Each structure stands twice: as C-alpha cells, then as structure tokens.
C-alpha cells in the first residue's frame, strides 16, 4: 500500500472548515426551527424568531365522509419528546392506526417531516392524508406545481377559488416576499382545496399517505420537505401608553397548591415560595375525607385525632400560605358519597362528568363545609378568603347548573354569614372562559351579590378578546376582583410533560398571561400549579427526570411577572404589531409603572411613548430560551419616550425606577 505524506496546511484548512460548518449549523438551528405542537401539528417555522405560520396535520377519512378524524389538541392521547436540538417526535393513535411523526430542522427555514403509519387492524378507508393549512392571506397567492403531469400547472397561477389536483414532485405558494413549498419524497398526488373554517375561507393542501383500505400490520412511511422564506420585518414596534385611565389593581402572580404528589410536591412548593412573590394561593378541601359519613361530626373526629392525613396536609398547606401573608382560596373537588346523587363518577359517564349535589342534604352540605373552615380557623388560625367548587360548570367533580350555582351561593353564603365566617363565595371558578353564561343567574341576582367576594375562570380555553372581555365586565358589574383561578394553556400537558421544557410552550403561556392582564385586568393569575403537577421546575424526579431540581424558562417567566410591584392599576397600551403582546400597569400617585411585552417575532427596536414627563428611567428584565430574567442596562426616559431593543421570541418587563 502506498503511503501519503501529511500536509499540515491542508489539515489545518480541513479542521477550520469543519469548525466553521459546525458553528454555522449551530447558529442556523438557533435561528430557524419548526414549531411543533405535542399532538403532531406543525404551526409554522421560525426564522430569526419571525414565524412563518401555517398548520399541518394528519387526517383519516372513512368511507363515510361524515366520519373524519384529525390530529388536534385534546382529540388523541399523544406522546411528545425532543430527540435533539433540531429534532422532535410525536406518536399518537387515530382509531386503529399508530402514527409516528418525526420533524427535523436543517436550520435554513427547511424541515423534513417523516410520518410512519402502522395498522393494528384491517381497516376500510377512503384515505389517510397529510395536510397543510395556509393563512387566509394566501388566497391571493400564486401557486405552482413542479414537474406535474398537467403542463398548465407548471407555471404560477392564482390559488384563490379554484381546486387543483395533479401528480407532481413539489408544490409552491408565493405571496409577495413569502414563499412556502412542500415536496414529497417521491412524485405524488397533490390536491389543493379552498374551504370555509369558522366562516373564513382558507387554502388546504392534501397529500395522501394511503388511499383505500389498510391491512393489519401494514406499515406506510412518507417523507415531506417543507421550506419557507420571507423577509425579516425590521420596522420598529411603536407602543403608546395612556396613563390617564386607571383600571383595576393587579395584586400579583398567584399559585395553586393542590397536593397530589407527596414525594415531589414539597421541593417545588418550597422553591417557588422562596423565589416568587405569590399574591394569592388556592388549596384543596379534601371534602370526601373530611366527612365521609353523613351522621358523624367531622370536628369531633378531627379534635380527637381522627383527622385524615390528606385533610391534615391540606390544612397545613393553607396555614403555611396564610402564615407568610398569602390570602387563601379554598376549593372542593370530590364530594363525599352522602353529598352527591348516585355513584361517584371519577371519569365521564356517557360523556357527562361529575355528580350533582344531593338536594335532600343541602343543609348538611353547608354545615360540613363551614365546619371545615371553622376548624381551620380555630386550629391553625387561618381564615379562608373565598370558597368554590372546582369547575362545577363542567363537573370536575361536582356538577351544578347555572341556576343551582346561584342557589348554592345564596344558601352556603348565608350559612357562612350566620356562623360568623368572613369567607365569601367565588362566582364561577369555571373550567374555561368559554362557559361564561354559567355565571349569569348569580351575576344578575341581587340576593346573591352580598355573598360574592370574587369572580373566577380557568384559562385552559377561550382566549379570544370578546370572550375574555365578558369576564372583565362581570367583575366590573359586581365591583369585586377577577381571578384567573387556574392559569396555563394546555390541560392535557401532564400526559406529555416534555413539552413543559419547550420554548414554544413557555412563550405561549406568558403571551396569554400578558393578554389576560391587558384585557381582563385580573387581581391575580394563579399558576396551575406551583407544585410538581405541571411543574415550572425541571428535574428532582418529577415526570421521571432525575436531574437536580432547577428552574426552566416557564419559571423565569413567572418570576419576572411576580416582580410587578403590588397594587398597580391596569392602563391601556396600544401597539402597531400583533406579534407583540403588551400590558401596562401603573399608579400615577406613586409614579410607579410596569410594562410587560411578549415578542412573538424577530428582534426589533421599540419606541414607547405616552410616559409621564417626570419619569426618568426604567429597569429592563428579559427572559428567553437563552436569558433567565436578565437585567439589562438602565433605560433612560426622555420627555415621555423611551427606546430599546426587544429580543426575538422573548418576554420583556420594564419597571420604573
């Protein structure tokens, strides 16, 4: 064998080239990334933080066209994981079909999507499709099939109002500077349709994974390349604050402390209480353990040492919050048998959740709840501020009608008052913002008003401005605080907990909180939870992660929100870019102001005007995937205006000095 002498210059060149390629790949991957939801739908590709939005999914169509199943939030039971910095994976079932979806970034605005489908039963189908939905604006786009069978489609044509089918290697949509192309791994049938969705016309692109039936054990695999491109929007963000209007006060971030994980809850609770300013706390009343039998006195049993361990721990949790100055909200989930109609339902029966209260035992129900609150006060010195049934509009796990909710507020509220309790009733505590009609009977009942101490909803669903505004209006009508009793964005996230570490989840969550501050003006947003359940911390054995316990991006978002000075009032703030959510709070008497901004786009300059002329400076804090509530350079305010940089995909808070 002939030997080759080593060329030192050539070796150095090769090494430098490899290093440059590695660094370039790392930088590109940081700038361009697919936004994958844990149920398998891709909702866009980010380039330098700017999102090119579209939505992909998988659709299974049976021979009956009315029977169609699509990957979507809370429709399946998916499993999500991140394999690498540039690779994510979702597995999910639709009927008897198992789907494994792999999404890999290449860092240049292009992603590779691999879908593997395995049949676990002979199934007759019309077809299974990978689809992409484009924004409404793309109705005016140009459309091109590359290397299609129809020559007239191999050049740009208008997409709007026309249906296209062709066998082609690629399809491309182009609108001004924006382009999106989808390329199957082999020449394939490609279908374009325009459809009405929520009264809006949209473009749908369908590519079959399999047409016709599929047999047990059959495996089908397809790959698609999706590429986007668009100019980065570098125009400044213009914000205007109106300090002449002061709305309702924001007490600060709150938290839920329902104990469910004895081994891992304490470490998270301790960390959160030591590192966050928590303004409100919500705890559980383990009612079914407090008084399991109708004809027993729970106070006597507790006093004689017969208190159930779950009740004792819940009371100690309430006392701990109260002892450090955090007002306590008490909520009941599970009723005892005697307080409910029929056999207790812990899962939906025929699609119906929960149990109704036993109307024959209403006086005993009022007494049982009041006895708990009185014992908590006498034994621990803790007075409950508000009481509710958790999500009783839905039945988690007590179910009442809107009128029954009104009747309970009056009945239980009157019982509390007659027995010297300061505890008020919480109107609503609804499962979602969307079920606002549930509160209307009590809201409009003059006899109920004296017993209502607050209004509450949970933020899992119903994020549009019109719906959220209804809750603000309800609180204004009664003149009581509004609470977001459970704050977060995905009620099923506990089943795919890797999503808690994703930048996309953290950004969506704090973006919603910023909108809630601006639209609803709540007294507090109570995070679900500040325990191991939906934990904002990572590791410590939670969800099987054995890393040392440490804060994630979601925790830093919460900490940054929690530094808002207590008692500032909501103030209107407007902006020129929908990708930047903003909320402002202030107190003109004290001369203190706070502005919260969530940037869903690229890095850009912000010009904030409308500030009081006497205001001279702001401290700035930034949280992102890379920055953990980093305090930036002091911002100088000049004649009511301040200019600063808003980093890409970040949460930024300004607090006046």
Automatic annotation (TrEMBL):
Protein keywords: Signal
Leader sequence residues: 1-30
InterPro entries: GH (IPR017853), Glyco_hydro_b (IPR013780)
KW Signal (keyword) present: yes
Protein name: O-Glycosyl hydrolase
Lineage: Bacteria, Pseudomonadati, Bacteroidota, Sphingobacteriia, Sphingobacteriales
Gene source species: Mucilaginibacter xinganensis
Record keyword DNA-binding present: no
Stored Gene3D superfamilies: Glycosidases, Golgi alpha-mannosidase II
Source domain of life: Bacteria
